[in-house]
Amino acid sequence: MLIVHHLQRSQSDRIVWLCEELGLNYELRTYKRSPFLSPPELQALHPTKAAPIIQDGAITLGESGAITEYILTKYGDGRLSIAATAPNYADYLYFLHFANGYFQPALMRYGLVLKAGISDEVLNAKLARRGMQQSLQILEDRLRGNTWLAGEEFTAADVMVVTTLTTMRLFVPYSLQGYEAIMAYLGRVVEREAYRRALEKGDPGLEPVVGGGGGEGLCI
Prior knowledge:
The chain is an alpha+beta fold. 49% of the residues lie in helices and 9% in strands. It catalyses: RX + glutathione = an S-substituted glutathione + a halide anion + H(+).
């Protein structure tokens, strides 16, 4: 059986959600932070020492993007992905990798600048803010004319991106005020039954961070 190792309040919520969307039969093992990092028993499973991690028979795999592609290929039966022959295949592929390839690194750079208290006049701070603004604007522009990131069909690209718009804001607060299309998109996300089930199973009691406010870091 597929085993999903999920660190609560982390990007591994993507994998729990993905499994729920696909209706897979899987075993979920949850872990609390210790106090901020993965606990020792989770770290021992993989060289990355971080969630998500899955086990499938003799296979142990880390990295949320790789795990997502593994599950889609082995268990998806074409669901939550776009065929290479479809006109929106490139859009799907771009946003499937957008979170880990561009958006999340930009968020981490922005968070480091905020934590260090670097003035907005410093070049690194300007670049960090610009990266966040560009990330959000790319999503805003895409969602103004599309229900989901790949088009009118919900896909794994949405599963990958939403975590950076929600869970990661627990660690690097930023505002979505002014990004009306993104806010409407998150409203559609929280209406999905599989999303609510994933939260209840993986992070019981955690309210999804889908509001517009963001504390100290305002990216508007």
